[in-house]
Amino acid sequence: MIRVLVVDDHPVVRQGIQQILATTPDIVVAGEAGSSAETFEKVRHETFDLVLLDISMPGVSGIEVLRQLRLRTPELPVLILSIHSEEEYAVRVLRTGAAGFLSKASVPEELVTAIRRVAAGRKYVTASVAERLAERVGGALPSTGHELLSEREHEVLCLIASGRSVKQIGEALCLSIKTVSTYRARILQKMEMASNAELTRYALKHGLIE
Predict the structure, then answer these.
(1) Is the pTM of this model over 0.90?
(2) Which of 52, 109, 124, 189 is spaced 20 to 30 A from 13 at the CA atom?
(3) Alpha-carbon distance 15 to 6, whole Å?
């Protein structure tokens, strides 16, 4: 039996996943978490075969939760489930250590297939993501602006584009206001932009925020 921990801050989404997996004889939702703190607590005290993680978590981002899970429990595979475009996020989360990426727009059967494959120790990506990865390795695909950013810079970019103030970003990421300002300056320089408004338009265009 594949024991899955479902991590999503929306109870309705967790319930929907529970209903989908209730029809499978070999997969069970063995735990649920709606925040990063709950996730780490569950993983610390319970046993799971796989974590199904939403990338858009409040406070600490899903990317950071993924990074922490890889450090704390490297043997526990993580399958990312996201509303965001796979073209924009899949490569990033796979490089961070995810075992697979699946869009929330996918059909239920694809979710079941992905869970089984990842639980078996394999990777799961769609054909389009596999092609993008191949192009990236071969150097045939130019990097978009945000792909030049570090993981922390990417998090700050998304929070800026979501309308958070420097103080709010610092509180969310446990950083000083000065450090957040430094990250912002680096982001603007790397992406050759001059304002938060430009960053926000870019993030919306590329599906980095809802």
Answers:
(1) no
(2) 124
(3) 10
What DSSP string describes the chain? -EEEEEE-S-HHHHHHHHHHHTT-SSEEEEEEESSHHHHHHHHHHS--SEEEEES--SSS-HHHHHHHHHHH-TTS-EEEEESS-HHHHHHHHHHHT-SEEEETTS-HHHHHHHHHHHHTT--B--HHHHHHHHHHHHT-SPPPGGGGS-HHHHHHHHHHHTT--HHHHHHHHT--HHHHHHHHHHHHHHTT--SHHHHHHHHHHTTS--
**How confident is the model over 25-53, as pLDDT tens digits?**
999 999 999 998 999 999 999 999 999 99
145-205 carries CATH number 1.10.3720.10: no
Residues 6+ apart with CB under 8 A from 173: 60, 64, 152, 155, 156, 159, 180
How many residues are present in the chain? 210
Q: Which fold has domain 2-138?
A: Rossmann fold (3.40.50)
What is the torsional sign of CA 85, 90, 96, 97? Answer: positive
Q: Give the separation between CA 102 and CA 174, rounded to whole angstroms.
A: 29
The domain limits of the chain are 2-138, 145-205
